[in-house]
Write a structure and sequence with these properties.
- With 276 residues, the protein is mainly α.
- Helices cover 73% and strands 0% of the residues.
- The chain has eleven helices and no strands.
- Helix 3 crosses helix 9.
- The protein starts with a helix and ends with a helix.
Length: 276
């Protein structure tokens, strides 16, 4: 931790990235209670109001809804889905990748073929197809579907790092002591492979945000009245000439969060690689 903080002080860009992430986390936690408008209220007399007019800090959209309120409320759903997706895909990926890499043989071969098939389908296309079939775009279903789309990549990373550690002497010593397979995989090997896995998890966090926003933009993401940043962009596209801010601000929200997480992921990668 001391080395992490030391490197953080030397990286202003990483500090900016962390500050942006914290900003959105705080906005999602307490922001809605600090805004005088709700994300569903329509100011019919002030549709497409410019930023700063009539008390609307970021203006209103084509239906007169406060853009700041919708962005802040929307941060809750997109962060929730992205965080749960990152955790779920990482846990499942570790279980699958470790099992395949540790036991090898036919299980490993079947794992590789299954992952190859899933990875041949773009995650966005896979998510769209499943969401289209189910017709359910709740936070729970969206989390599960996006997680499934990301599991193959995480599982392959987990398998790769396990194969690297599997031949180490401490693993052989654990076998000689008579430790069971689960103990060896998750008590002996897992702590020594957390670096690449943490990096992969932070990367998946950024990818999840882009995925959720993309699904919302395509109309199959979170549905009204739940505000969705991607949906905000596409639903205000018809009025972009009259109210460009209605498209610009949610787009900037997506970009700022994705870029900040990517910067943080890159910083974590460099720190963990140095420590190894």
């Amino acid at each position: 931790m001391k080395y992490f903080l030391y490197q953080l002080k030397k990286s202003p860009l990483a500090m900016v990235g962390i500050a942006i992430i914290l900003f959105w986390l705080i906005a999602a936690a307490v922001g809605p209670s600090m805004i005088p408008f709700t994300h569903t209220a329509m100011d019919s007399e002030n549709q497409m109001a410019a930023p700063g007019e009539y008390g609307h800090v970021l203006g209103t959209d084509g239906l007169g809804r406060d853009i700041l309120a919708r962005i802040v409320y929307g941060s809750r759903s997109i962060l929730t889905v992205a965080l749960l997706t990152s955790i779920f895909s990482t846990v499942v990926g570790i279980l699958l990748g470790f099992s395949a890499g540790y036991f090898g043989g036919k299980l490993d071969t079947a794992f590789l073929r299954a992952m190859d098939i899933l990875m041949a389908i773009p995650p966005l296309v896979l998510s769209m197809v499943v969401l289209g079939i189910l017709g359910d775009s709740s936070i729970a279903s969206l989390t599960i579907i996006v997680s499934i789309a990301f599991v193959p990549a995480t599982a392959r990373v987990s398998r790769g790092v396990l194969l690297t550690e599997k031949s180490q002497e401490y693993v052989s010593a654990a076998r000689i002591r008579g430790e069971n397979h689960l103990y060896i995989m998750f008590v002996e090997i897992l702590p020594n492979t957390m670096g690449p896995i943490i990096v992969e998890a932070t990367a998946r966090f950024a990818y999840s945000i882009m995925m959720v926003a993309s699904l919302g933009f395509l109309g199959v993401g979170l549905q009204p009245p739940t505000p969705d940043w991607g949906m905000m962009v596409i639903e205000n596209k018809p009025v972009i000439a009259q109210a460009p801010w209605a498209v610009l601000f949610p787009a900037l929200a997506i970009a700022s969060l994705v870029i900040a997480i990517s910067i943080f992921s890159d910083f974590v990668s460099k720190v963990l690689i140095h420590e190894r």
